[in-house]
Design brief:
Elements: H1 21-26, H2 29-40, H3 45-54, H4 61-69
Length: about 70
């Protein structure tokens, strides 16, 4: 006979750290993450654009470059 597993409820307090989208945009956080991920995995801008397109994200290599440089915030 198998032993029953008992689930224990855990209370997790809400985080006091808040995400500041304006600060993230102003510091180009998303662009830095994109550039780091792309370069760490050895993708060119064109190859990364094609990879994203495969997953349903339609962005050109020029668009990725603008995000990485912080030129575009959209």
């Amino acid at each position: 006979m198998k032993k029953k597993t008992t689930l224990t409820k855990i209370h997790i307090a809400p985080s006091t750290v808040r995400y500041d989208a304006v600060a993230a945009r102003d510091s180009n956080e998303v662009g830095q993450i994109l550039a780091g991920t792309r370069k760490r995995n050895g993708y060119s801008l064109v190859a990364f654009s094609e990879l994203l397109r495969h997953y349903g994200v339609d962005v050109s290599d020029k668009g990725i470059s603008k995000w990485e440089k912080g030129v575009s915030h959209s």
